[in-house]
Design goal:
Elements: E1 3-8, E2 11-16, E3 23-28, H1 48-64, E4 68-73, H2 82-85, H3 94-98, E5 105-106, H4 116-130, E6 139-143, E7 146-149, E8 154-158, E9 165-172, E10 182-184, H5 187-190, H6 194-202, E11 210-216, H7 224-236, E12 241-246, E13 252-258, E14 261-266, E15 272-278, E16 291-297, H8 300-307, H9 311-314, H10 317-333, E17 338-342, H11 360-368, E18 383-389, E19 400-403, H12 404-410, E20 417-423, H13 424-434, H14 456-467, E21 484-485, E22 502-503, E23 512-517, E24 526-532, H15 536-546, E25 554-557, H16 561-572, H17 597-600, H18 607-610, H19 618-634
Parallel strand pairs: 3-4, 4-5, 9-11, 11-12, 12-14, 18-24, 21-22
Antiparallel strand pairs: 1-2, 3-15, 6-7, 6-10, 8-9, 13-14, 15-16, 17-19, 18-23, 20-24, 20-25
Helix pairs in contact: 1-8, 1-10, 13-15
Pfam family, one: NadN_nucleosid_C
Organism: Candidozyma pseudohaemuli
InterPro entries: 5'-Nucleotdase_C_sf (IPR036907), 5_nucleotidase/apyrase (IPR006179), Metallo-depent_PP-like (IPR029052), Nucleosidase_C (IPR053828), Pesterase_C1039 (IPR014485)
Length: about 625
């Protein structure tokens, strides 16, 4: 393994090279609309235009070496970013940007299936644009009166350079919360059906050099759906090399099923581009002799490094066109309009414990949720508990200007609040019950209440990463000089990340957090338990466990979490509504030929730009700050 050292700013960056094979892949998944890059994190500051240029250069590099490179995506293009979620239907401006990438194979995720309008976009825009390259073996769409595949059930073709014969399939996990215009057939059922067997029979092993399965399924062995598929494919292709590409759980991972079948998963939110190299003619008995994987940090430094291009030679005509689309969309949608300022600190989902003053869930529970008011004509009790599932929060809250884009980044979901009114002794048991057993799945849906990357297995791996220094064994460097970032443990070890990072701690996050507004009334006093309608099945299940009749669910409010956070930031931080992030130096990331904002402001820390705003943070925020300092001393 060759490692190259660079200094970026004041931090040491160490890059690991890509190992190309006969057939190579670039993989993305769970992009959720993050096509302008991460304003506050230089490590992931590349935008979609940069990625388009990178893929073009890497394909050229492979072609010049007599090798093939295929681009693959595993779905989830909705919910999670202002560029995507602010429009109606959401994705109206982001999907035209996404399809500028020249994918060779792609499928859809569960976030394309919650709403019928999103599924219609997927069918009419994305699937039609990519044609035979769009594969969805077990998801169908209701077109008029007919159920048809979204895209194609399979793809069979020969690669451009080496003429490798590829059979591709595409699968969604067993997802039950699809809309009325779609349906998902579980993998366990599909592999037994005649039409699927006919596909495999149509392309016998002697006519297939490799099978590629693009899925929106975690590659983790705990999800047995891929194991079922693996067993079936091996019946038909006992010696064929097979590659799975997974998604959904928002992590970097690589799993070896056997010496000729591996699975790659490439993170989330345009933080990662996965790379897989395959030596099709390798005859060794170890998967490591056939496959090489790498997790590429989503930034232009890495894109230029791996493609061998200088700053001047990197941007392509198409890449610049995509940058212009991003800039125009941000301006048209007003995504840089400032709602307020986060002056005190970054607030993290899981980089600090839930009890820490800088934990985002603590901020929401203590300061934001109590501002929720019931709509008029809604009868309320004197006491209440407000629950949110932690999976409804998507990303950290960074200090600096809080923009319209920030609103959608932190919590894009526009759910309704509902309530049940029950005796206090029942009400106080609901959150603890929901948090029992760690990472639980919503009833009949396999939908997590906690963030997807908070599975016990992932947390266990990350605990190990912080303590294990073996990833640095082949490097002559001081760990403390490294930037913080992903350190991935997978079936090939701990040297898959293309950039050597210092590991960060990811603390456990409960399934739900709550705002407690109880008085000293008796244990049978009525309490309103308020929660998102999305988790009603989970709350109902708790009542069954408590052997208490589930009361009528009543409407409470439409003012969802993102709006509450908007109001809190606006009322507790001094800001000038006429100013925008562009005016104070954040600007439109992705302007053609320009440096990223994160470069200009020291890795995305923009607090020094707004730190001198006259008037401080207001009386309410000052009180909050004093409380946080007191709590921090306790911690």
């Amino acid at each position: 393994m060759r490692a190259t050292f660079f200094f970026i700013g004041a931090a040491l960056a160490t890059f690991r090279d890509l190992a190309f094979g006969d057939l190579n892949f670039l993989h993305t998944t769970d992009t959720h609309g993050w096509y302008l890059g991460h304003l506050n994190q230089k490590t992931y500051s590349g935008d979609w235009g940069d990625f388009v240029s990178f893929a073009h250069h890497l394909k050229q590099k492979a072609r010049q070496n007599g090798q093939d490179l295929l681009l693959v995506d595993s779905g989830d293009r909705h919910d999670g970013n202002g560029l995507l979620d602010i429009t109606s239907p959401n994705g109206a401006r982001s999907l035209p940007i996404f399809i500028e990438q020249d994918y060779d194979l792609l499928t859809l995720g569960n976030h394309e299936l919650y709403l019928a309008e999103n599924s219609q976009q997927e069918y009419e825009i994305v699937a039609k644009h990519y044609g035979e390259k769009y594969v969805s073996t077990n998801v169908e769409y209701l077109d008029g009166d007919n159920w048809v595949p979204i895209g194609n059930k399979y793809r069979y073709w020969k690669t451009e350079v080496k003429g490798t014969r590829v059979l591709a399939l595409g699968f969604m996990f067993d997802f039950a919360r699809y809309n009325e215009k779609t349906k998902v057939t579980p993998i366990a059922e599909v592999i037994q059906q005649d039409w699927f067997q006919e596909i495999l029979d149509k392309f016998p092993a002697e006519e297939v050099d490799t099978v590629v399965v693009v899925t929106h399924v975690p590659v983790d062995r705990d999800w047995n759906e891929l194991a079922l598929l693996h067993a079936e494919l091996r019946v038909h292709y006992p010696e064929t090399k097979i590659e799975y590409f997974g998604g959904h759980s928002h992590i970097r991972d690589f799993v070896v099923y056997d010496e000729k079948l591996v699975a790659l998963q490439s993170g989330r939110f345009c933080e990662t581009v996965g790379f897989l190299g395959v030596n099709l003619n390798a005859t060794g008995s170890e998967a490591s002799e056939v496959y090489s994987r790498r997790y590429i940090d989503f930034n232009t430094d890495l894109f230029r490094y791996h493609s061998g291009k200088s700053v001047e030679a990197f941007d392509t005509k198409k890449g610049n066109h995509v940058k212009s689309l991003i800039a125009l969309a941000r301006e048209d949608l007003g995504l840089d309009n400032v709602i307020g300022y986060v002056n005190n600190s970054n607030y993290y989902m899981d980089y600090v414990p839930v009890s820490h003053p800088k934990n985002l869930f603590r901020l929401l529970a203590k300061k934001v949720l109590p501002t929720l008011e019931a709509e008029k004509d809604v009868e309320t009790s004197q006491e209440r508990l407000i629950l949110i599932n932690t999976g409804s929060v998507r990303y950290d809250l960074y200090k600096g200007p809080y923009t319209l884009d920030t609103h959608y980044i932190v919590s894009p979901f526009q759910n309704k609040w509902v309530k049940v009114t029950v005796p206090k002794y029942i009400a106080v048991q609901i959150a603890p019950k929901l948090n029992q057993g760690g990472y639980i799945m919503a009833a009949a849906s396999k939908e997590p209440l906690a963030p997807p990357h908070q599975t016990p297995k992932v947390l266990q791996k990350r605990d190990q990463q912080v303590m294990d220094l073996s990833q640095y064994d082949d490097l002559d460097l001081h760990v403390e000089k490294l930037t913080k970032g992903y350190v991935t443990y997978d079936d090939f070890g701990n040297k898959g990340d293309d950039t050597v990072h210092k590991a960060v701690v990811n603390y456990p996050v409960p399934n739900v957090v709550q705002s407690v507004e109880l008085k000293h009334n008796g244990r049978k006093a009525p309490v309103d338990v308020v929660f998102y309608d999305f988790i009603t099945p989970n709350v109902k299940e708790v009542f069954e466990q408590l052997d208490y009749p589930f009361p009528d669910v009543e409407y409470y409010s439409d003012r969802y979490l993102g709006q509450l956070l908007n109001d809190y930031v606006a009322e507790n931080e001094i800001y000038d509504a006429a100013r925008t992030a562009k005016d104070i130096g954040v600007g439109l990331v992705g302007s053609i030929g320009g440096n990223k904002v994160a470069d200009a402001v020291g890795g995305g820390q923009v607090s020094h730009i707004v730190g001198g705003v006259a008037g401080g943070i207001g009386a309410g925020a000052a009180k909050d700050k004093a409380e946080d300092k007191a709590d921090e001393k306790k911690d």
